[in-house]
Prior knowledge:
Layout: E1 17-18, E2 60-62, E3 81-88, E4 92-95, E5 101-104, E6 111-116, E7 120-124, H1 125-135, H2 140-145, H3 148-156, H4 158-161, H5 163-173, E8 184-186
Amino acid sequence: GRRRSPVWRPPVPAGRLLPRLLPPGSWVSCGSYQSPRDLGELPPGVPKKHLSARTSKWDNICKDPKINDATQEPVNCTNYTAYVQCFPAPNIICKDFGGNETHFTGSEVGFFKPISCRNVNGYSYKVAVALSLFLGWLGADRFYLGYPALGLLKFCTVGFCGIGSLIDFILISMQIVGPSDGSSYIIDYYGTRLTRLSITNETFRKTQSYP
Length: 211
């Protein structure tokens, strides 16, 4: 057999964790990322040096995103995606597919976790709701959101005799009607937001399991 020295570690396949001083059940894989769903990504401009997979809450800590005060979205939001830094737990040793080991002490950035963000273009949700509530009968809400024709029509008909103003107020409050350019409302990042869910042919459906 092979003589074990104090620093010897049993060989493991490339890309797997070399565990050390971790709670039972803790694990992580690292190396070149394969899929955005399974592994962290690097934002543009950051060299692809060390990359660690997203794991359980016991293996890494990801920072909260830095929020832009003007847009209320994560800083550097591009193509509906932003990135936050994640720090693997102390005493984790990763070996990538090239055989290089990375020793983490808890203060190094192991990977960048992609998070979703929205495209905004200066339209405030609070302003839109306020205009619809108080000046909707003049079409101010539609003018603000970029619908001048509907705004003028509401102005000439006094909000379609009040009925159109009420309908618009409900639609804007529920975020069904948004800016004409397709962007999203500016809403407090940690505030109340509505998320529209839909199912398409690409939606992953988990098989129902029965006890």
